[in-house]
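Lab meeting notes turned into a lecture example. A postdoc, R.K., suggested we walk through two folding results consecutively so the class can see how the record format repeats. The first protein's sequence and structure tokens come next.
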Amino acid sequence: MNFHLDKIECVFILLNILMVHITSANISSSYKLKNIILPPYIGKLQDGLDSKILALRKPYVHVQIDGRTDVSDGPLIRTDVALFPDMTLYDAIAEASVRFGVEHPCVQNPYRMEVASASSNCYTVINVPGVVSNTSSRWIIKIVRRRGRIIYEDECLPSGRISMRGGTTVTFKKTN
């Protein structure tokens, strides 16, 4: 029983130290800020915290599957994954698959796509679980940076050299 109370007390002490460090830190000092651990979502401003702290959110990559077309309604599925250094498109898809599977364990995971070779240097998405498609359906991969610049748009999957940045949106769009 004492061991359990000691662990809880230790957690409260660490949280208290963290809160004291956050409230006493000079918010304009980037050196101090990079050593502060913050949750990815910050709620209301607390007394003593500067508004600049709201900009300190963990960067995310948005991976979405758009099964909507002009002639049929399909699902629009969006999963936000935490960015990590040297993240590629394939890493983002794998992270989205894991996160979707944890959040929706009883639903077909659309991020477990089937891919086929269209030519020697081109692999295309041929099937997305949970999205109705036919033989004439194609999937377009579009990668857009945070400020709207399109860096990739094609039916073929890009090479692994495209790195993800915070705010990047990867869209798999179904076309007929």
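The second example is placed directly after the first for contrast:
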Amino acid sequence: MATADSPLTDVRLEQVLLLPLDTLPGHAPDSPLMREYADRLTWFYPPADADAERHWLRRGRGVTFAETVELAARLLGPAEPVDLAVTVTATPDSGEAGYPGCLLRPLLPGAPAVLGITGQGAAGPFTALRIAAERIASGEARRAVVLVMEQCRLPDEDGLVLPARDRAVLLVLGAEGSHALGASLVSRTPPADAATITGPAPGEGITGPWADLAERWAGLAGASVAVTAHDAALSYWCRLELDAVPDAFDSSGLELALWAEDGVGA
């Protein structure tokens, strides 16, 4: 399947925030919540000799999606109302089973409609942004947020590439902002320029390109950006062009490339 969208020049990316998950206390590997989580996963990941001591429980900080959602809402603050909230996950939640979008909705101004995307690996954030942009372009929403989250506290599994850390990125879409959402691609067939859709070191997960974008966001004055990801596990090639809005900057546009890990996905 491939999607290639015409530029949605009236939809802009207002904010890109890398959530400071290290400011949250998390949960120790031997905490009751983590022991219950490990017991639940035993149904899906029968203990092997290498996992007999559940060494994987020492990965990351044990920050749950519920705690991540609360942090995202606090950072967004009581700004303009949000009409749509989309959550994107590629890993299970180490906390209590639930749907993060339902937890996010009452915390945001405007009581937005919610949508959750999972199981799409690196393609998930690109799909979420396309849906949110289409809702805004059609007039069904004025402002939308996309929250991309993943956790590393999982057992090893063949074919599953774990992120190296717990990480989350919040993207805000609306009518204001320095960059307009341009053409997008989500394809399971290699595009003609597949060689340009690559990724660096393992461990970046689905949040990799968006965390990179968040870290560079403040310095992208006048720069058009191509965000790309190749998910080798699920055979996805993804790209989203973010076009610098000419009247938002004095400097001329540049071309940058941001990428995701080659081989992510559950």
